[in-house]
Amino acid sequence: MYGRHPTAVKVAEAAQTNTSKTYFGSVFVMDDPLTLLPDVSSKRIGYAQGMTVSASQTELGLLMIFHFVFTEGEYNGSTISILGRNLVFSDVREMPVVGGSGAFRFARGYAEGKTHSLDVKTGNAILEYNIHLHLGFRSFRNAGMKEKNSATASTLGRVLATCSKQAKDYGSCVASKVHEVEKDMCLKEFLALKNCMQHTIRGKA
């Protein structure tokens, strides 16, 4: 938005920017309001913060680096990060989601942006973004860890219950000979405990 309180400002330009049809080399920084609906009067839920660089000499194509920063609701404090090419005059522009934080940690996916409205006189525009996310890595990892931990705890419990006598015999043997350590000390008891544990883990106890 431009005017008295602009939310997008030019911070740099190249020597040829002013003579370029695509404003090549211009750099803008933005801190735009993020609303629930594509309407300036809609509820604000955060900010779209980042920068755009005019990176094409033949068409109005922007390099966009920006974050959707959520400040309301269940996603308060979380962000979605986008890095991609934005062809301004395309009906729909697709850009990759490269990450996120908070609720969107490990996020991957893509964002589809389109111009909802444009005021040619003021330069103000309302952009609409539909974001498609995949959070499967995080979910799979957490689920896998829970299943693995559960399986490990179950196996350990069976070993302790089944091989308690062998463990006690081995511990007593080691304790009685702690001052006279020698090769193969308590080998018989150790092998008995080892065999019991292996058979239990394999489900043969």
- Number of domains as seen in the coordinates: 2
What is the succession of H and E elements?
EEEEEEEEHHH
Text of the CATH class of the largest domain: Mainly Beta
Give the averaged pLDDT, no decimals: 84
Helix content: 25-40%
Uncertain residue ranges: 138-146
How would you name the oligomeric state of the polypeptide chains in this document?
single chain
Specify Rg, calculated over alpha carbons: 31 Å
Structural features, described:
The structure is a single chain. This protein is an alpha+beta fold and 205 residues long. The protein has 2 domains: 8-135, Allene oxide cyclase-like (AOC barrel-like), CATH 2.40.480; 155-202, no CATH class. It contains 3 helices and 8 strands; from the N terminus they run E-E-E-E-E-E-E-E-H-H-H. An 8-stranded antiparallel β-sheet has the order 1-2-3-4-5-6-7-8, with no helix packed on it. Helix 1 (136-162) crosses helix 3 and helix 2 packs antiparallel against helix 3 (187-201). The longest helix has 27 residues, at 136-162. It starts with 7 loop residues before the first strand and ends with a helix. 12% of the residues are buried. Residues 138-146 have low confidence and may be disordered. Its main location: secreted. InterPro entries: Allene_oxi_cyc_Dirigent (IPR044859), Dirigent (IPR004265).
